[in-house]
Structure formats: C-alpha cells, structure tokens
Write a structure and sequence with these properties.
Length: 191
C-alpha cells in the first residue's frame, strides 16, 4: 500500500519484532516508547525543552537466531503540550526518513483523533432486541445522523457524549413545551 504516510502505535506496541517487520516491509512508523531504563537514562541527560534523535541498533533473539535491527529514537524532554500546557516527555521510535522534531508530537496525536472516532461510533450505537429489521434500521440511521451532526457542526466545540446529553435535554424540553400547548388547546376546546 503506497498511500500510507506513517503508521502510529502507542507504547503497548513497542517491540523489536514489530520494528523489524515494519522496516522489512518499508512502512514508516512512529511508536511511542515506554519509559524503560534506557529511555530514563537518556532523558536524564537532557535539558528541559531539549529535542534529540539518535540511531539505535538492537538485537532480537527469535527462534534460536540473533537478528540485528535498527531504528531512530527521537526524544523530547519536558516539552510543553499546547493542548493542555503541561510539560511532558515524548520518547519515540521511528523509521521515517526525515524527522521534524517540532512536528513529531502533532503527528503522533493524529492517533488520538482516530481512536476518538472509534469511541464516538461506539457511544453512538443504539441497540435493539427487536427481530423486526425496520426499527433496527431506523435506529442505525438515527445514530449515524447524530454522529454526522456532531462531526459537521459541533466536533470542535463539545465532546460527543456532551452533545448527546444536550440533544436529549433539548428534546425533553421541546416535548414538555408541546405537551403544555396541547393541554392548553385541549382546555380551550372544552370551554
């Protein structure tokens, strides 16, 4: 697949085996590295706001064979995260040809948007135990409509869950208004 610009992995996927496989397949990757002893030592030797990268060679014992691999380690120490103002350490492993240490965190954060999209789809799912396909189809279309409304109109302003709560509250309010009008009309007719 030629259109992949970079594959993003969280720290749970950091492994020599994965890096070697991706290197062989020539897919560019960016893996958030867990803070193991090597990472901690490297970060201790860095100044706040410092960014550095270095070539990292490693060995992998697999099937009674020692395999040699390599990657690039990119470390950013106590860099301010503009989204929340906190100073964080960002250790990465990558095989991407050019590494812009000023953009690497933003590239990695793209993974969070993808995960948020999946979570939103899960939150939007409305389940039904009906065996009749019509209400099931209606609920599916309704959940897709809610998700589409949020993505197009409100995604930047409120989280999806908050959007659903506000829509629900608005619907309840409008229903009460309608019921009140119907009661008033009903009482007007009786008089």
């Amino acid at each position: 697949v030629k259109s992949i610009s970079v594959i993003l992995f969280d720290r749970g996927f950091y492994s020599k085996d994965l890096m070697m496989t991706l290197n062989r397949s020539r897919y560019p990757y960016l893996i958030f590295v867990p803070k193991n002893d090597m990472v901690k030592r490297e970060l201790e030797g860095m100044a706040e706001d410092e960014k550095r990268w270095f070539h990292y060679e490693f060995e992998l014992n697999k099937d009674k064979t020692v395999l040699k691999g390599e990657t690039t380690m990119a470390f950013l120490k106590k860099v301010i995260d503009p989204s929340n103002g906190k100073r964080l350490d960002w250790p990465f492993a990558t095989n991407a040809g050019t590494i812009d240490l000023d953009q690497i965190v933003q590239i990695y954060k793209g993974r969070w948007r993808i995960e948020t999209g999946f979570r939103v789809q899960d939150e939007a799912r409305i389940s039904s135990k009906s065996k009749d396909i019509r209400p099931r189809f209606f609920l599916f279309v309704y959940e897709q409509l809610l998700q589409l409304l949020w993505v197009v109109l409100y995604k930047e302003e409120v989280p999806f869950k908050r959007f659903l709560i506000e829509i629900s509250e608005l619907c309840e309010y409008r229903l009460r208004e309608w019921e009140d009008r119907m009661r008033c009309q009903s009482s007007d007719i009786k008089v």
